[in-house]
Design brief:
The protein is mainly alpha-helical and about 725 residues long. It is globular and about 85 Å long. The strands form six sheets. Strands 1-8-7 form a three-stranded antiparallel β-sheet, with no helix packed on it. The chain has helices at about 10-20, 25-30, 145-165, 175-190, 195-225, 250-255, 295-305, 310-325, 380-390, 420-440, 455-465, 480-495, 525-555, 560-565, 595-610, 640-660, 705-710, and strands spanning about 75-80, 95-100, 130-135, 140-145, 245, 260, 265, 275-280, 405, 455, 510, 515, 640, 700. About 35% of the residues lie in helices and about 5% in strands. It has two domains: about 60-260 and about 270-325, no CATH class; about 380-710, no CATH class. Helix 9 (about 380-390) packs across helix 16 (about 640-660), helix 11 (about 455-465) crosses helix 12 (about 480-495) and helix 15 packs parallel to helix 17.
Amino acid sequence: MSGAAGMSAAAQKELIKKLRKYPRELLKLGSRMPVSPTHPLTHMDGLVASLHPDLDFFICSPNMNCPIPLPRLGNNIVVSMCDDFRFGAADPIQWPQMWSEDYSHYPCIPRIQHDGPLCGLWLNPSIDYDFDIDLTLGQGLGRLSSSALEQVARAAEATKDDYSRFLEPDDVELAPILALVIDHFLHVLRTRGLTFRRTLLNLRYLQRAALELQGHINLHRFVLKHWLSNNVVRSVETTWMGAFSDDPENMARLFRTGTPLWTVWWMTESVRTRCFGVVGLELPEEKLVLAEPREYNLRRVIYEGQNDNSVYGKIQEWLTNRILPLAKHGEVSVISSRPVGAPPAPSTSSRPTQSRKQEKKKAGTVRTFKQSYHKYLATPIHSWIRALECVEENDQKCVDPKALLVFALPRPDIFASAAADDKLGLLFTNWLRLRSAVFSIIQDPSSASRGEYRISHQAWRLLIHQGTLDITMPKDGAKETRFADEVAGLVQAIRQDDPNVGGVPPNVTPSWCGQPFLWNPREAGHDAQCREVVWEVAYLGFVLDLLLLDERLAQWRNSEHHEKALRQCFRITDDRGLVDVDLGMANTGLAEVDWVMRAPFIYALKIVVSHWNMRTPHNALHPSLSIPDKPVLPRLEYTQEEMEELEQVLASTVVQAFYTEYRRPLVLPPTLPQPGAHPARVRFQPPDVPRTHSHPGTWRPTPLLRELASHSS
């Protein structure tokens, strides 16, 4: 490989050294130097960059959009590689992969296709042409254009169709999970208004899962059945990525199955870049034994990534952290009609709720928390209200008596904190101006912790009263300064260095479930619509609080069982995330009216709580919830009275534990009062709940719940 024009060997070495450490510098250099026509320079969210025609640095992944040289029969060609820096450590996949039997599907991942049903798996959308801003959601928020989304959906459906046709359920353990991930992120792309960067990230997750699944399909269709054959059984497959290998036996097998194969033939010594020759596909087998290259450390870097962990370790970590938590092996997928029974009637109170002043307690008195009621508030589940009102408000019993009281979402009672209708209207309207922007960070799949950005109740009040992410900062020395600083931190996390992201502009009417939201208390159905808004905030607030508490207290030996148990606490389908809320989830799960329908979710919560390690003596688990010292069989049957008693014990345990850990009340699980959600605003149908009971008046756990309970012993 020749050096760049006008650069000495020493300068070239320094340049390469710098680029290895700071790969983003490649973009700056690429903008100042000639670009190879076969290796185009693209922007930061692109896939390929080139420094100079004579210095071919690839930024490669299965999503790359530049031509990849295919091994040609009997010829050696040069491939230069660099790390894929598009999403950093969250997506460390490089191409080509070193051959590994544990990841034998990687060589079978398809090469880029510019037409056909799968071309959407390489879609690289442009913010100018493939992304539609929706100002009713907020500034800088939107979705993929209809044509781009149709292209991605067609590729996703084609991949799932190939999966159902060519793979048996037990062929690949990861395949059902990958299919589930495709469904999940396709749903997100269709329904969720996000920033372009977060939309792009969701698209990359879908593409990655679909390419993985296509690799598994090709491996089982074309390779495995010929793996042990002694003769060449397939011509070279020109539509797959291929892999590196220097093991003669594996190379010979891969040759015979027609898998594109690369192997190190020589390495450049003078410049010491990651550049190596590639052997042709019909090299005689006796010549496949290669001498150890002189630059062994450099070769180790190529094959094992830049850090101590190997590429495959990183890949497995990525799959575990990003894909497996979405998995849930559910038992039931039949969709039923809405559950029987009636939700509670709404409150008739129109008095504003007020935060209680922190007056000193009189000696000998016990102060407990009280639940707020208002015609616009979603009514919490009754057993949880009783649990809250039994918690003693005593900071000295908390793990941290001076912990800051912070929330991932506004407290629901903030929407009933004004007496005048116009002020209430301002609260609801301003929240809907901010809602999509706030949800974009809570439901961000790139965040390792759900709801990690939390601010105080007073900071939420300041943000909602102003109704914009560009809040007016108070004067120096004002008591609101600290709250404004909290809001500024949240806004910075939402924007991710994109100042164009914001709430719905003042001259645009905000929307609710796709329809304009107009404040008119005299209009029929207006109160019910307001309760829907508050129910969503309360439901998601409860989910985030429960996940926060579980993350701190849980002690599971198996993370997959942990995730399954958590998902069983909510009546959701496999393609939904725990923080993916819809009005169709109202009055389901723990809020079911029928106790037999509610029982599976109570029992699942019991399994979750039984793995908690309470950190204070006065907050120990109730004997009915704790894991016994010796393994015992899960209980097989519950009566209504026993289940309601268990429900009350669970509610009291969770509410008390949350106060002990965080010095504030838990956001209680809500119900949506009558008449419930308007059918036109419901996009989700809850999965069926099996009414498994031995005889009338009793309930028996499902096989999945019994299995999860057995892991608790």
